[in-house]
Amino acid sequence: MTHSLVCPETVSRVSSVLNRNTRQFGKKHLFDQDEETCWNSDQGPSQWVTLEFPQLIRVSQLQIQFQGGFSSRRGCLEGSQGSQALRKIADFYPEDNNSLQISCPCFWSGWSVPLDSPKPEWEP
Q: Taking the model in full, what pTM does it have?
């Protein structure tokens, strides 16, 4: 069984918020466990989320969910430790539906490296 590594001390940042409406579409909705809410980005060439954890973590899987019709074609997971530069961990290819999608690291190269700043990014 897996559990979320996101905790109250986790710092999150996003590339943009639709119409700057943080109340309705802000990053607080990324992890609120409410199926009726979501983070919604503005349009652009790529969108991203960064998470800064208070300690090193080991990513065992990436779970992502899009609204149907608003998925990306390709995503990339990057990560770093401390002040190191981000480095690519894996590409992922989400389906265009609203189901929870899970990418398993057993198919990723370098997945066992501990991180404190993972960054998933996707293209429209």
A: 0.74
